[in-house]
Amino acid sequence: MSDEKLAIEIARRSDSARNWQVAMSLFEELHHRHGNLLHAFLASRTKPNDCDDLYQLIWLKVWDKLPEQFRDGNFRAWLYTIARRTIIDHHRLARDHNTIPTNAEVSVEPDNVLLQQERASILANCLQQLERKEREILQALFSGQTYAQITQTWSVSHSVAYKMVHRAKGKLKICVERHLQ
Asked: Helix, strand or coil for residue 70?
């Protein structure tokens, strides 16, 4: 029996115990046919610890939506549409939970305030250790100026400005890391 015919039979499930058992048996057949490839599809697009949860969620969605949403057509295409949408929803949710907190959300516990003050002091000290031109270019970049604006201000080419910024950031990083150890 084709995937599409299996899906149509599953969608016809009713409240009778017999029809329900038949639908579950047919669903297991669809799961058996598509499970490994779907899992590989998910594994290539998600983190390993999310893959199994999404896999189960997709099959739950398929079971729930089959009666109302699947119409004669390509079952595999319908299955992978659900999978892609579930992955997209998962990534959106993860992105929304990993946003940078605003000032109002940052903890103001004394230890955190002291740590932030110490880091700011280290950064300011390391900025002062840079050559004047490097420090000014970094400050311009951090204040929102573009490379085009920096090249005009310091009368250098784009590649020279990029190299100067890259070197200055490298020196700054080394200095900050040395002080944080």
From this structure: coil
